[in-house]
Design a protein that fits this description.
The protein is globular. The protein folds into three domains: 165 residues, Immunoglobulin-like (Sandwich); 274 residues, TIM Barrel (Alpha-Beta Barrel); 133 residues, Galactose-binding domain-like (Jelly Rolls, Sandwich), CATH 2.60.120.260. The N terminus is likely disordered. 19% of the residues lie in helices and 30% in strands. Strand 18, helix 9 and strand 19 form a beta-alpha-beta unit. The longest helix is centred in the middle third of the chain and has 18 residues. The chain has 677 residues and is α/β, with parallel strands linked by helices.
Length: 677
């Protein structure tokens, strides 16, 4: 328990005259419900950047499991007689490896994989090893499968191992479960040939048995749980620039991401290159595909929001001054439009009537996913986007009028392109417009009122990518999270205009990041939620159902607030307040329409009473040093919300709010006869 927060919480004064004298006054009319807050208001955006999928959320531990990287043995170490072949059993993934006797008594033949940015294994956990194998000359042969501790000082550094008998010249799948007796930070998987009979191996896979919901082609459990704990109303997938690809051929093709994992082709990710932080071995296996995405959304209660290519490759990677191969035209555009139609059928269609719906059923989900939203394009701009978007919309509107279509306002939150695109989005009649802003503190604080005077008619706003990038400090830091919280009060107050909001990016591997800040950081064993994560969680789990009018008076220059009612919780009233200033603030909360005793649940996010990080040189300016801090893998609980519960007498409550903090006050009836709205 945070005792400072407990003290603040207990400092309420139920006297109106005293409340009048406080620095800040929040007046909330609980009798006047305003705009409905969409269930999709707060969600998550997933993109395979920073090793977010392979090596991250996707549970697979083997890099290049099907030998389909541009260099087929990339990620593998070999010894003995190892040869790559390309006439394998899976047409989209034809490569495999033949292990043959080395001809030397003391030289083994085998392959080793050290995973994505290393491999780590938890002690006592079970790991499912699978391989497709055959004996090309027919008969029987043996493989030895081992998990190794590369840091071990023992003469034999194999932690656990087992043998597999491979029989016959036909390809078959073999499965064994291995258990490591202790945690291994630096591990590898080995596959050795035993004896002299050659063996062909393909699609070598290693998964934790304990994945999210136990799915065999599953998700890393701790990372998936972090997303579930956000209680997101919507999940956008798969990007981002990933959707567009550097070329049309390398766009994210959803059709390649479904069906058996063994036959999902490799794709070049948009994020495997870049002059600043290049990762030469970063590719997409499509193992975490659209089926897994829809299934996960269903399990966490989030509306799926797939985004597909509009037929334009990433404009930042191409010469867009003229038409070219980066732009689908004529018959080639029809292919992209058909992809959109087929995706809707995959999600919502009847397996008896549609081939794509049939695939969904064969993958284990005969009932529809009930898709409601579809994004077309990511960060497009210029003269071509709107006409191409319209070409998609016409058949979709005709065939599936219930689908809400999301267009783009481009990569910038203002300027000529932004204004022009909004005009075009209104003209073509999209349902929502995806806005992106990676900006500094000044933008976020000044942008609190961004949507106050926004047109109430026409397309709604989807704040699809946003994060505060500190001026000269583009890393996760507490003060940036506070600015994000302030901005989100403006989104909430304008819930009739803003229907969705998703922070970005979501995940980042500590050794493989390309973009900062990010919501959740991880290595191969651990994960940590940032202060930005907790801001998102506080808003998402206290969303409410209707906006309440709020008036902020007094010394309120650096105070930002919103208020909502929650009809699903006996009309509880939730007040969100962000103090971005340098001083604690005495705040009077006036709740018109409420009287008598209520339970007040106070949750606060504050840095000043947290345990200092080790090895931080705070210097003369301790405040600013603290504001630059955040949680880390070694100190994941440094900045986390604290919650206390007290009894208060409404309508007037006075409370002290710490400097640089986010506070959530939830007022719930103690006696149901006091329900106020």
């Amino acid at each position: 328990m945070n005792f400072q927060i407990l003290f603040y919480t207990l400092c309420f004064i139920a006297c109106f005259t005293q409340a009048e004298a406080q620095n800040v006054v929040l007046e909330i009319n609980t009798n006047k419900k305003g705009a409905e807050i969409a269930p999709t208001m707060y969600g998550v955006f997933f993109e395979d950047i920073n090793y977010g999928a392979d090596g991250g959320l996707y549970g697979e531990l083997i890099k290049n499991r099907s030998f389909e990287y541009p260099q087929p043995l990339m990620g593998w170490n070999t010894i003995g007689d190892v040869v790559v072949k390309d006439d394998g059993p899976f047409n989209r993934c034809p490569h495999y490896v033949r292990l043959s006797y080395s001809g030397k008594r003391d030289m083994a033949t085998g392959i080793e994989n050290r995973g994505f940015l290393g491999m780590s294994l938890l002690g006592g956990e079970q790991y499912r090893f699978t391989v497709w194998a055959r004996v090309p000359e027919d008969g029987e042969a043996q493989l030895n499968i081992g998990l190794r501790d590369l840091d071990s000082q023992e003469e034999n550094f194999t932690s656990c191992e087992t043998d597999i008998n491979v029989c016959g010249s036909e390809w078959s799948k073999y499965t064994v479960v291995l258990t490591t007796p202790y945690t291994i930070k630096k591990a590898s998987l080995t596959v050795f040939l035993k004896g002299t009979v050659p063996v062909d191996v393909e699609h070598i896979s290693l998964f934790p048995v304990n994945t999210w919901h136990g799915h065999e082609n599953g998700l890393r459990k701790d990372l998936a749980q972090h997303l579930a704990n956000l209680k997101p109303g919507v999940m956008r997938f798969p990007g981002g620039c990933i959707v567009e690809g550097a070329t049309l051929d390398t766009r994210y093709n959803w059709k390649h991401s479904i069906g058996t994992v063994e036959n999902r082709p490799l794709n070049e990710t948009r994020w495997n290159y870049g002059k600043e932080r290049t990762h030469f071995d970063y590719y997409q296996s499509y193992g975490l595909g659209f089926f897994e995405f829809f299934q996960f959304c269903e399990e966490i209660g989030a509306e799926p929001l797939p985004v597909i290519s509009c037929g334009m490759a990433c404009q930042f990677n191409n010469d867009i001054t003229k038409k070219g191969s980066w732009l689908a035209q004529g018959d080639s555009l029809k292919e992209f439009i058909q992809d959109a139609i087929d995706l809707i059928e995959f999600c919502n269609g009847d397996p008896e009537k549609n081939e794509w719906a049939k695939i969904r059923a064969e993958m284990g989900h005969p009932t529809p996913f009930n898709l409601k939203y579809l994004g077309i394009g990511n960060e497009q701009w210029g003269e071509w986007y709107a006409p191409m978007l319209k070409a998609f919309m016409e058949p979709i509107r005709k065939l599936y009028p219930q689908i809400k279509i999301i267009g783009s306002s481009g990569p910038w939150p203002d300027g000529k392109e932004y204004d022009d695109l909004w005009a075009e989005m209104r003209r073509v009649g999209v349902d929502l417009v995806d806005e992106h802003f990676y900006k500094d503190e000044e933008f976020f604080l000044s942008g609190v009122n961004r949507y106050d005077n926004f047109p109430r008619k026409g397309p709604k706003v989807f704040a699809g990518e946003y994060a505060c990038h500190g001026t000269g400090k583009k890393w996760n830091r507490y003060y940036s999270a506070i600015c994000e919280a302030a901005f989100m009060t403006g989104l909430e107050r304008n819930a009739d205009v803003v229907r969705m909001a998703t922070y970005a990016p979501l995940f980042a591997h500590i050794d493989g990041w390309q973009w900062r800040p990010d919501m959740i950081w991880f290595d191969n064993l651990r994960s940590v939620c940032t202060s930005s994560y907790y801001v998102q969680q506080l808003f998402s789990t206290n969303r409410g159902t209707h906006v309440l009018p709020i008036k902020v008076t007094g010394n309120s220059e650096k105070i930002y607030a919103s208020a909502v009612a929650d009809k699903d919780d006996n009309d509880a009233v939730i007040v969100k307040m962000v103090n971005t200033g340098e001083k604690d603030t005495q705040t009077s909360i006036k709740l018109k329409g409420m009287s008598g005793e209520y339970t007040m649940i106070t949750t606060m996010l504050s840095v000043f009473d947290s345990i200092p990080l080790e090895n931080v040189n705070y210097g003369a300016d301790k405040v600013h040093s603290l504001l630059d801090c955040d949680n880390s893998l070694d100190n994941p609980m440094r900045i986390i919300p604290d919650t206390v519960e007290t009894k208060v007498i409404c309508p007037h409550v006075t409370i002290k709010i710490p400097a640089h903090s986010v506070a959530i006050f939830s007022f719930k009836v103690t006696d149901l006869s006091l329900i106020h709205i």
